[in-house]
Amino acid sequence: MLHDWIQRQIIVPIFQLLRQGITPEKIALSIAFGAVLGSMPAFGVTTALCFVIAYCLRLNPVAIQLVNYLMYPVQIALFLPFIRAGEIVFHHRHLRITVPQIEHIISTNKAEAVRLLWTAIWHAVTVWAAVAPIAILIIYICLSPVLRRMASRSSSQQVET
Fold first, then answer.
1. Residue 19, SS3?
2. In this predicted model, what pLDDT tens digit does every residue of 27-48 receive, in sequence order?
3. In terms of C-beta density within 10 A (0-12 exposed, 13-18 middle, 19 or more buried), how is residue 106 classed?
4. For 35, what's the count of Cα atoms within 13 Å in the CB-facing half-sphere?
5. Taking the alpha carbons of 76, 13, 141, 2 in that order, is the dihedral positive or negative?
6. In this structure, which of 61, 116, 118, 143 has its CB flanked by the most CB atoms within 10 Å?
7. CA 23 to chain centre
8. Shortest CA distance to 75 belongs to which of 105, 38, 123?
């Protein structure tokens, strides 16, 4: 079941992009940026940032947004760890709050959520920004050879048909 979903939602779209002539390196960079931007500890801005990055770097907007959307559970899972890291780096008081409490505040009173979380989110985003270039580089370096193999397999399948 999960294998079929991954095949339909991730693998097939990547093969389609490769068949359209998009280079494996551009797809790898699109995926890397989508994954890293999708983990940013600031909700509601990643989609716009992905469009801006895709436009500026001439990356594939479909690939970057697909990965960005798939990263939403990871974004939630990393939200508090980034906040905690920001507290450590900036020597800020420990914010005693849980993810369910954050979700409740955001869904019921966005203004109060911003007031309460502004400093914590700013610190978390700063830590994320320090880690982001390294993460993009690692993802890109790991994905490029895999996508090159997929591209060569895709082109050989086209020749056979």
1. helix
2. 999 999 999 999 999 888 999 9
3. middle
4. 16
5. positive
6. 143
7. 20
8. 38
